[in-house]
Amino acid sequence: MLESGLGGRVCLVTGAANGIGRACAELLAGEGARLALCDLDGERLEEVGGDAALRVAADLSRRAQVTRLLAATRERFGRLDVLIHCAGIYRVTPLPQVTDAEWDQLLDVNLRSAFLLAQGAVELMREGGDGRIVLVGSFAARTGGLRASAPYAASKAGVEGLTRHLAQYAGPLGVRVNCLHPGFTETPMTSILGEEAREEALRRTPLRRHCGPAEQASMAVVLASDLAAFVHGATLDVNGGMYMA
Ligand SMILES: NC(=O)c1ccc[n+]([C@@H]2O[C@H](COP(=O)([O-])OP(=O)(O)OC[C@H]3O[C@@H](n4cnc5c(N)ncnc54)[C@H](O)[C@@H]3O)[C@@H](O)[C@H]2O)c1
């Protein structure tokens, strides 16, 4: 029998109000994990995780708010075992129209947040001598993306590089770090795309279907589980064959 080993573990999921993060929270709840959930959208977050979950509304691109989240997690549970960082934003702005403000926003929300969270999480996890971090990137890091703006693709490539640095630093401390690159996935994020883009995604996907957030969440949770005990510094593509390394 395959055992995730996540029962009773303290798992922090970001972007938990919607899409892939929400699916991760639901899956982890089913494994008996203790949940700390965060999202910018505090109202929608209230629907997720059940009575025992810690829910924190925060903007994770801001250091003070990340610090507050990690402190609240420690105060409630006394430890942190797993971080799955799903929070992110997407833009489809063509290159000539990308402003400095958009560049900064995408890099702050998608990449700085990963750095801030991982920096704090490694410190908490090393106290327990064991931890697992999964950062969510995107196939846009590999391919430039489907209608994705330049800062989106760049931010997600940054997440992949950050994963490798973190793996070198945190591996000896007992913290495993990996990256998940989803392909096109049906979530609120992609609901802004029109029919033409959705059909293009299908054409570029050899499995010839779109996937749902649960199919991404299951792989994120496996990476965080005992089932991936020797997987470290890896980037896992979950995209129906849209990109093959
Ligand atoms: N859906 C896809 O096709 C797809 C493809 C590749 C990668 N991804 C990545 O997967 C991750 C999850 O995407 P999703 O499709 O579930 O998106 P989503 O929009 O459904 O959910 C993202 C969540 O992040 C939250 N969020 C946004 N900015 C935040 C901030 N500053 N602080 C805290 N929370 C914030 C949002 O409120 C939202 O609940 C993202 O990093 C995304 O870039 C998604």
Structure description:
- This protein is of the alpha/beta class and 245 residues long.
- The protein has one domain: 3-Layer(aba) Sandwich (Rossmann fold), CATH 3.40.50.
- Helix content is 43%, strand content 15%.
- It is built from 8 helices and 7 strands; from the N terminus they run βαβαβαβαβααβααβ.
- The chain has helices spanning 19-30, 42-45, 63-77, 100-128, 140-143, 150-170, 195-203, 213-224; strands at residues 10-14, 34-39, 54-57, 82-85, 131-136, 175-182, 235-238.
- The chain has a 7-stranded parallel beta sheet, with helices on both faces.
- Helix 1 (19-30) links the parallel strand 1 (10-14) and strand 2.
- The chain is globular, with a radius of gyration of 17 Å.
- Bound molecules: nicotinamide-adenine-dinucleotide (NAD).
- Residues 15, 17-21, 39-41, 59-61, 86-90, 109, 136, 138-139, 182, 184-185, 187-190, 213 line the site of nicotinamide-adenine-dinucleotide.
- Nicotinamide-adenine-dinucleotide binds next to helix 1.
Primary descriptors:
245 residues; alpha/beta; Rossmann fold; seven-stranded parallel sheet; 7 strands; binds nicotinamide-adenine-dinucleotide
Layout of helices and strands:
Elements: E1 10-14, H1 19-30, E2 34-39, H2 42-45, E3 54-57, H3 63-77, E4 82-85, H4 100-128, E5 131-136, H5 140-143, H6 150-170, E6 175-182, H7 195-203, H8 213-224, E7 235-238
Parallel strand pairs: 1-2, 1-4, 2-3, 4-5, 5-6, 6-7
Helix pairs in contact: 1-8, 3-4, 4-6
The structure holds nicotinamide-adenine-dinucleotide.
